[in-house]
Specification:
The protein has 232 residues and is α+β, with helices and mostly antiparallel strands. The chain has helices at residues 18-30, 63-74, 84-111, 113-124, 131-150, 157-175, 189-201, 208-215, 217-230, and strands at residues 2-6, 34-38, 52-55, 58-61. A four-stranded mixed beta sheet has the order 2-1-3-4, covered by helices on one side. The chain binds glutathione.
Length: 232
C-alpha cells in the first residue's frame, strides 16, 4: 500500500498544505489505495519538503513527480483522451497556482501578523514547551527568507493582494460555467486546483485573497463540487 507522508490536518481541511492536499486528492480521484503518515519532521523528507510517498520501498518526493510516477505505474485513466490544448492549459494552470498564487497565500499566512497568529495556532498549537517557543519561530524565519528569495516577499501587502487577485480572476474565467477546470470531466489538474482553491475558500483564515476568491461564485461552487465528489 502507498504510504503518503504529509502534514496533519489543519484549518478545517484534510491538509492546510496545498501540495499535500493536491496529492491526497489525486490518490482519491485515481482510486488508488493509500495510508496517511502524518508528520511535522522534514528531516526524513528526501527533498526537505512534504508531501512524499513510499510505494513498497520506492520513495518519491514532490507532488508533481509523484503524480507522474503514479500515472506511469498504475495508469492514467483521469487524463485519457485529453487534447494537447487541454494538457497545455492544465500545465499552465498548475504553474500559476503552485509557483505564484501559492506564494501570495504563504505571505498572508506567515508574514502578515494577523494571519501568522492563526497559522501558528493551527500548525504548532499542539506543541508543548520548549518546542512551542522554538519551532514556530524557526519555521516563520525560514519561510520569510524563502519569500524574500523567491521575490514575492519584496512587494507591498497591497501589491501582493492585486497579484493574487489577478490569478484568481484568471482561474475563475478559465473555469467559467464548466463543472471542472478542463470541461465536463474531472482531470488530474483538478486535484491541484481544488487543493489550492480550497485552501483559500474553505479555511477559517480571513485574508484578503479569501474574500476575493469567495466573490467568484463559480470557484466556491467548484470547491463544494470537488469536496462532495472526493471528500464526502
Ligand atoms: N514542489 C513541491 C512543493 C512542496 C512544498 O512546498 N511543501 C511545503 C508545504 S506546502 C513544505 O514542505 N515546506 C517546508 C519548507 O519549505 O521548509 C511539491 O509539489 O510537492
Amino acid at each position: 500500500m502507498i504510504k503518503l507522508f504529509q502534514f496533519p490536518p489543519a484549518l478545517d481541511l484534510p491538509n492546510a498544505s496545498p501540495f499535500c492536499l493536491k496529492l491526497e486528492t489525486y490518490l482519491r480521484m485515481a482510486g488508488l489505495p493509500y495510508e496517511n503518515v502524518y508528520t511535522l519532521d522534514l528531516r526524513k523528507a528526501p527533498k526537505g519538503k512534504l508531501p512524499y510517498i513510499d510505494d513498497g520501498g520506492r520513495v518519491i518526493a514532490d507532488s508533481g513527480l509523484v503524480i507522474d510516477y503514479l500515472k506511469q505505474t498504475y495508469g492514467d485513466a483521469l487524463d485519457l483522451g485529453m487534447t494537447p490544448q487541454q494538457a497545455a492549459a492544465g500545465l499552465l494552470l498548475r504553474r500559476v497556482l503552485e509557483e505564484h498564487l501559492y506564494w501570495c497565500v504563504v505571505y498572508f499566512r506567515w508574514a502578515v501578523d494577523a494571519g501568522w497568529q492563526l497559522t501558528r495556532e493551527a500548525f504548532f498549537g499542539g506543541l508543548g514547551p520548549p518546542l512551542a517557543w522554538i519551532v514556530p519561530r524557526v519555521a516563520r524565519h525560514t519561510i520569510m527568507r524563502q519569500l524574500n528569495m523567491q521575490g514575492l516577499g519584496r512587494h507591498s501587502e497591497d501589491e501582493i493582494v492585486d497579484l493574487g487577485a489577478a490569478d484568481l480572476d484568471a482561474v475563475a474565467a478559465m473555469l467559467g460555467q464548466s463543472p471542472y477546470m478542463l470541461g465536463d470531466q474531472p482531470r488530474s489538474v483538478d486535484a491541484c486546483a481544488y487543493a489550492f482553491l480550497a485552501n483559500l475558500v474553505m479555511v477559517p483564515l480571513e485574508i484578503p485573497l479569501k474574500r476575493h476568491a469567495r466573490r467568484h461564485e463559480n470557484l466556491v461552487a467548484y470547491c463544494e463540487r470537488m469536496r462532495a465528489r472526493y471528500w464526502a
